[in-house]
């Protein structure tokens, strides 16, 4: 499977795990806790597979950057967390940084 597809699966898995964290209520709720553990385990599994073809510095920057941006947007849309211009600008800068890193790491 393509390394970038595996990295995308890792990002989606991490976002699912992170999104479920609040619902665990300190890991006192079984269902959401299982979602978090499976999400994070899947994320690391897919990331490890992606690292077979994508350099670590690129894969980790994309994984953490896009994951952070997606969590911030989901927090705003789903959890009704605050969103303002500085936060939106920061998310945009994360995405721009991931793109620049990706372009700069190509031979």
TrEMBL record:
Taxonomic source organism: Meiothermus hypogaeus NBRC 106114
Transmembrane segments: 33-51, 58-79, 85-104
Keywords: Cell membrane, Membrane, Transmembrane, Transmembrane helix, Transport
Highest taxon, organism lineage: Bacteria
UniProt KW Zinc keyword: no
GO MF, one annotated term: transmembrane transporter activity
Name this polypeptide is given: Multidrug transporter
Localization (cell): Cell membrane
Database matches in Pfam families: Multi_Drug_Res
A GO term from the CC aspect: plasma membrane
Membrane topology: Multi-pass membrane protein
Annotated family: Belongs to the drug/metabolite transporter (DMT) superfamily. Small multidrug resistance (SMR) (TC 2.A.7.1) family.
């Amino acid at each position: 499977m393509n390394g970038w597809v595996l990295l995308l699966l890792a990002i989606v898995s991490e976002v699912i795990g992170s999104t479920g964290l609040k619902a665990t209520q300190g890991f006192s709720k079984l269902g959401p806790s299982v979602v978090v553990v499976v999400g994070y385990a899947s994320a690391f599994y897919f990331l490890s597979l992606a690292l077979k073809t994508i350099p670590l510095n690129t894969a980790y920057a994309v994984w953490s950057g896009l994951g952070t941006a997606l969590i911030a947007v989901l927090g705003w849309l789903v959890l009704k967390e605050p969103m303002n211009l500085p936060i939106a600008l920061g998310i945009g800068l994360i995405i721009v940084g991931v793109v620049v890193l990706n372009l700069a790491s190509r031979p």
